[in-house]
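Field log, afternoon session.

UNIT: design team B
ACTIVITY: writing a sequence onto a fixed backbone
BACKBONE:
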């Protein structure tokens, strides 16, 4: 008996849910990813600020599916999809499919200014987090040997562009790092005098949260000595310099050797190629418009899930590019594939929004659970519980819990390592 071939491109939140959901199905599953591990992205900012090791939030795919006998893993980067021939094109080979699930996620959106990427790195993969950690820690090390003056001030200035959940969490972690963790570690500089700026183009940070929680987040960030600048649209980035238009009136320039980007995302490059292949539609952020069952119009054998899917049949606007959406879509697709094998169908995908959370440093977080909103300690404990719940392996859950407890009581971050060759910040 020849089993249907299900190929899943991308082992993130959505893709992995498809793979695991098909573990008992009469299909041959192939997971293709350009990395050999699953990454829990919501905790990347803690890697970037020395709180966790990348291994704490990563799990090799082969370890996750070793007992799933109908699944194999291919390490490689997909270059194109031959939808007419039903083949996935990789470097040097092609892989056929009967059912294809594309879950390649997103990439940073610099809104037409891709030249900023080298000057203001983003936080999407483990390599990004390690690179940012190197930049941040190197800035303090170089400032230690720099005489007092404008260059030292520039080294000790950190600008985060984008006031969504990732930007807020990263800003809070940097505020703790400079004000608590590094206290007493240097002799020529006082790390607490470092400045952290959070720039947001909208009129408030965390714009998807209720206004009251946004205000609470601002208060917590100020407690950590983070300066929040709303209605500040970045218009230019040069080496060590950020220019922002404040309240549509004047341009303000600030010198900062460390500039980080958390302002937006767009669909991966495969979205455009898929749309061209099937005369499909993409939205302004490069996300492929899908039918209510998450398939491409005219191609019921091709599913799009996660950040790459523009799913707008449920509401007037597309569903947000967040992990709960991807996970629910992945589970839905796995169930739909199995239903089709039995000659049945399923109703359209419906997203159940359970709310959003963001942490702002030690003992503080905001949580919007739709029916209730809360912050402070209660929000922080809820944030801890939910994030530990979604870590896949028990070993990682235990290691993270121990590390968090140690960080909490000692205010230390043990993963403050500058790895690779030490490099000066951009000049």
């Amino acid at each position: 008996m020849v089993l249907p071939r299900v190929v899943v491109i991308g082992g993130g939140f959505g893709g992995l849910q498809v793979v695991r959901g098909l573990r008992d199905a009469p299909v041959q599953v192939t997971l293709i990813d350009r990395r050999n591990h699953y990454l829990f992205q919501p905790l990347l900012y803690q890697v970037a600020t020395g709180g966790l090791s990348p291994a704490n939030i990563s799990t090799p795919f082969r370890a996750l599916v070793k007992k799933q006998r109908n699944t194999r893993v291919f390490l490689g980067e997909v270059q194109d999809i031959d939808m007419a021939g039903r083949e996935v094109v990789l470097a040097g080979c092609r892989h056929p499919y009967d059912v294809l699930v594309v879950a390649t996620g997103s990439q940073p959106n610099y809104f037409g200014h891709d030249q900023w990427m080298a000057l203001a790195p983003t936080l999407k993969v483990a390599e990004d987090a390690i690179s940012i950690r190197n930049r941040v820690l190197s800035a303090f090390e170089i400032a230690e040997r720099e005489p007092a003056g404008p260059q030292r001030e520039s080294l000790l200035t950190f600008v985060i562009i984008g006031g969504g959940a990732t930007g807020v969490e990263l800003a809070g972690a940097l505020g703790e790092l400079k004000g608590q963790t590094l206290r007493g570690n240097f002799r020529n500089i006082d790390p607490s005098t470092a400045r952290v700026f959070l720039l947001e183009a909208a009129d408030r940070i965390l714009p998807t949260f209720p206004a009251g929680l946004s205000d609470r987040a601002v208060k917590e960030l100020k407690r950590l000595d983070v300066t929040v600048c709303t209605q500040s649209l970045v218009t230019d980035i040069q080496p060590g310099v950020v220019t922002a238009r404040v309240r549509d009136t004047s341009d303000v320039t600030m010198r900062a050797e460390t500039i980080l980007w958390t302002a937006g995302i767009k669909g991966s490059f495969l979205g455009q190629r898929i749309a061209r292949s099937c005369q499909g539609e993409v939205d302004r952020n490069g996300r492929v418009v899908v039918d209510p069952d998450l398939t491409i119009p005219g191609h019921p054998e091709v599913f799009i899930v996660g950040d790459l899917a523009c799913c707008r049949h449920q509401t007037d606007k597309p569903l947000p590019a967040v992990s709960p959406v991807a996970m629910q879509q992945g589970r839905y697709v796995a169930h739909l594939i199995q239903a089709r094998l039995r000659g049945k169908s399923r109703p359209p995908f419906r997203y159940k929004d359970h709310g959003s959370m963001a942490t702002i440093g030690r003992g503080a977080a905001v949580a919007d659970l739709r029916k209730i909103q809360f912050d402070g300690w209660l929000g922080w404990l809820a944030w801890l519980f939910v994030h530990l719940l979604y870590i896949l392996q028990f070993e990682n859950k235990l290691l993270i819990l121990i590390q968090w407890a140690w960080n909490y009581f000692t205010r230390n971050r043990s993963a403050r390592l500058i790895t690779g060759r030490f490099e000066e910040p951009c000049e």
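LOG NOTE: The CA atoms of residues 92 and 208 lie 44 Å apart.
NEXT ACTIVITY: expression trials, pending approval
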